[in-house]
Amino acid sequence: MQQLNCCVMVPTYNNAGTLKRVLDSILERTTSIIVINDGATDNTAAILKEYPTLQQIHLPENKGKGNALQVGFKAAISKGYDYAITIDSDGQHFPEDLSVFLDELQAEESPNVLYIGSRNMQQEDVPGKSSFGNKFSNFWFWFETGTKLQDTQCGYRLYPLKQLKDLKFYTPKFEFEIEIIVRLAWNGTLVKNVPVRILYDETERVSHFRTVPDFARISVLNTWLVIVAIIYIKPRNFIRKIKKKGFKKFLLEDLLRSDDKPKTKALSIALGVFLGIAPFWGFQTILVFALAALFGLNKAITFAFSNISLPPLIPFIIFFSLKIGAMITGEEISFSMENITEKFDFLQNLKTYLIGSFILASLSALLFGIVGYISLIFFGKKKMVVDNG
């Protein structure tokens, strides 16, 4: 603990039945402990008087686990700690597993890492709602960050404190533990699981999770995080990736040499072109990542080709959409490139434009998909010949 400059944080609220046992077990391993009494109304305060050497923070009223953790993080940072391991006071975690986090951290190449305990959710004493909630949370964390974890809800965690200094958080209750791992992942922190044991003793365990209101708060948070991820984070990461590699290297590595099969890449190209031309104004980015994930396609390729509707090409897309729409509907409309770019006369023929744009999008997607597939097959064979000498 001293070598890694790490402390243990224990947020507690009305867990008087298990608090002493948890603290005594932690003290067998370290004295670097910060206890946050989150406005407990039982005899928690009296129990903590037996530990005068521990740093204690007594909040006047209960404001939620998220708020208690944030208060604890500030205290740990002010004390100069680099890491904090959080452990619940309800007795479900084993303080002996502190060494699991420390061993992993010592072996880790990057100091910018967050470990989350991975519980065995298949054991018999795990409540069904806990197992479902964990799967639900795991899915949305993957969708928001691209990182797959086995457990995203366990409160037994190791946090890198330096990465928390400049972040402002907005949730005060249980949903905070989701917000913080997503926000840190977005900022470049590695988020990993480490195996820990779990004990669900219903005779002494006190859970303060309120199924309906807390699940609703988590759902609202995940909705917001998904929107931010689709509109800002994923495009930002994609652009950063291109800038870091360079466009030519990106095309070679991510487009031509990724592990995806030519068929998957070609379908990704086709979907990107279709979404880029079709009139899904304001929703293109959302649809790109949602549909690419749904159909198991390459999100990077789909996003790249969805940008076919760059500003210089927009007038031509509108022009040909109107042209095709007029051919299909039989309507006689008079338009020119000047009217499209300056007077926006195409808005008077919106129906014709919409019909034409979907047909143009479909035809273009088919064309780009076929050409892409043939090109990928050709370059794939050429690469095999080069690799084989």
Mind sketching the topology for me?
Elements: E1 6-12, H1 16-27, E2 33-38, H2 44-48, E3 55-59, H3 65-78, E4 83-86, H4 98-107, E5 113-118, H5 128-145, E6 157-160, H6 176-186, E7 190-195, H7 211-245, H8 247-256, H9 262-277, H10 284-294, H11 299-306, H12 314-329, H13 337-343, H14 350-387
Helix pairs in contact: 5-6, 5-7, 6-7, 7-8, 7-10, 9-10, 9-11, 9-14, 10-11, 12-14
* Helix percentage range: 40-55%
Query: What is the topology, as strand order, of the major beta sheet?
Result: 3-2-1-4-6-5-7
Strand pairing plus helix content: what structural class? Answer: alpha/beta
Query: How many helical elements?
Result: 14
Largest sheet, strands/sense/barrel: 7 strands, mixed
Mean pLDDT across every amino acid position: 85
SSE sequence, one letter per element: EHEHEHEHEHEHEHHHHHHHH
Give me the Rg, rounded. Answer: 27 Å
Based on DSSP secondary structure assignment, what is the total number of beta strands? 7
| Spans of at least 5 consecutive residues with low confidence | 340-344
Q: Specify the overall morphology.
A: elongated
* Beginning-to-end CA distance, first to last residue: 54 Å
What does this structure look like?
This protein has helices at 16-27, 44-48, 65-78, 98-107, 128-145, 176-186, 211-245, 247-256, 262-277, 284-294, 299-306, 314-329, 337-343, 350-387, and strands at 6-12, 33-38, 55-59, 83-86, 113-118, 157-160, 190-195. The protein is α/β, with parallel strands linked by helices and 389 residues long. A 7-stranded mixed sheet has the order 3-2-1-4-6-5-7, with helices on both faces. Strand 1 (6-12), helix 1 and strand 2 form a beta-alpha-beta unit. The longest helix has 38 residues, at 350-387. The two termini are 54 Å apart. Mean pLDDT is 85; it is low at 340-344.
